[in-house]
Amino acid sequence: MSRIGKQIIEVPKGVKVEQKGQNIKVTGPLGNLQMDCHPSIEVKIDSGAGQIQVINEKPQIRENKQLHGTMRALIANMVTGVSKGFEKKMKIYGTGYNIKEQGGKLVLQIGFCHPVTMTMPKGIKIAIETPATRGNDIPAVFTLSATDKHLLGQFAADIRKVRPPEPYKGKGIRYADEYVKRKVGKAFASGTA
Length: 193
Description:
Layout: E1 9-10, E2 16-20, E3 23-28, E4 31-36, E5 41-46, E6 51-56, H1 62-83, E7 86-93, E8 98-102, E9 105-109, E10 116-119, E11 125-130, E12 140-146, H2 149-162, E13 172-175
């Protein structure tokens, strides 16, 4: 039995969970999300107690054991997303690098000869705290927020992929809590030959 899968999901006040066959819809103050549950996993919703239980009918099958915890985690993320939401804070290091939002698109100036334009997916909001870097020490800082954890994580990864942090000076786009292991550059020896 899955340790994650057997945990009961608590539904906070203001969040409504509906089930039609294998489709689960979660509605809350921040929006609504829905997904289709795997046919081998059963979901029981107790509206009175405000709890959701994910049940694995055949725990001896390996695939079902894997899906048990996954389905429970996905449903829990939906409940958290519509009640509190998810955030991902990111930083850009590098002289002259900056970020701005123009008409639903993200425009990054990050050392290329052209600005990089990315279309923002529906449901993701951006808050830019510091739009431009100041030298190599003060980064540009922005926060992405959404109700869908998967969509948020994928978009943040796509932004980071445009210019990942390099190991010598640390220039590039990174997550705020990411540690970049630095390398020592070339050492020039004095010519005493």
